[in-house]
């Protein structure tokens, strides 16, 4: 067991080192190749060239506001409730200094610093997690969504090392006993598999908005970033927004109205 752990750490270190070299060389500015959807679409499917999310942080003023979105996501995706350090998270909340680590300044508004902010997969235009996955279990769709094929995941966790946003969770134990009520429309996962937010691609294919967007009741917006007439583009034009760690050049698809 010790030998396997050493081997994993050695290869993971090389992977991270390679990732750093790519960043230094500007390699992240080149978009990862997109693949065609592996999810089955129907006639009602919502489509976009580049899906993006805009979170209006001004509107999330209570614990209930956050819980409604988190619970909707957990229910839709069979996310287990595992307490402690091995918990599984697709969308969660955290403090300003943890969310915007490279955009803080000592003169920031206290009201803004005291807010809590959603964290989730950023569905980057140049996703490092796609580049480091040795089995293509993580891949980017033509719509910009970074998706996962759980059957291909071998649990190497290179994607977790490559993601600069900490947006992925690993199933250290069988998650199924920790699911309160299984949603038969979405697959459960197994021990040894990584998982993360998928922008509700399965709901988009059925003509529905993401579960958190629906539960947010107007506090989270979702649309086509490539369409100048879309709601998300108009919101970005009219409001000051931030993205997480923009200096890395991954081009996140999640924006925060501040």
UniProtKB/TrEMBL annotation:
Residues 1-24 form the signal peptide. Residues 144-173 form the 4Fe-4S ferredoxin-type domain. It comes from the Bacteria. CDD domains: PsrB. GO terms for molecular function: 4 iron, 4 sulfur cluster binding; metal ion binding. PROSITE patterns: 4FE4S_FER_1, 4FE4S_FER_2, TAT. SUPFAM superfamilies: 4Fe-4S ferredoxins (SSF54862). Pfam families: Fer4_11. Keywords: 4Fe-4S, Iron, Iron-sulfur, Metal-binding, Signal. The keyword Ribosomal protein does not apply. PANTHER family: PROTEIN NRFC (PTHR43177), PROTEIN NRFC HOMOLOG (PTHR43177:SF3). This is Putative sulfite reductase-associated electron transfer protein DsrO. The gene is dsrO.
């Amino acid at each position: 067991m010790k030998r396997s752990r050493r081997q994993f750490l050695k290869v993971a270190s090389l992977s991270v080192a390679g990732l750093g070299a790519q960043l230094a060389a500007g390699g992240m500015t080149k978009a990862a190749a997109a693949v065609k959807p592996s999810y089955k679409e129907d006639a009602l499917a919502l489509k976009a060239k580049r899906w993006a999310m805009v979170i209006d942080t001004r509107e999330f003023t209570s614990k209930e506001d956050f819980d409604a979105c988190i619970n909707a996501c957990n229910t839709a995706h069979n996310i287990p409730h595992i307490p402690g350090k091995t918990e599984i998270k697709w969308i969660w909340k955290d403090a300003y200094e943890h969310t915007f680590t490279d955009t803080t300044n000592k003169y920031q508004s206290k009201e803004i610093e005291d807010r809590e902010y959603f964290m989730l997969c950023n569905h980057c235009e140049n996703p490092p997690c796609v580049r480091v996955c040795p089995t293509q279990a993580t891949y980017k769709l033509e719509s910009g969504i970074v998706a996962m094929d759980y059957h291909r995941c071998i649990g190497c966790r290179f994607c977790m090392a490559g993601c600069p946003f900490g947006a992925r969770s690993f199933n250290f134990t069988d998650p199924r006993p920790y699911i309160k009520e299984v949603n038969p429309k979405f697959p459960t996962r197994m021990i040894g598999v990584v998982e993360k937010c998928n922008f509700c691609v399965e709901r988009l294919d059925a003509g529905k908005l993401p579960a958190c967007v629906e539960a947010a009741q107007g506090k989270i917006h979702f649309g086509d970033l490539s369409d100048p007439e879309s709601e998300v583009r108009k919101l970005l034009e009219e409001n000051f927004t931030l993205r997480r760690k923009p200096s890395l050049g991954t081009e996140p698809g999640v924006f925060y109205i501040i």
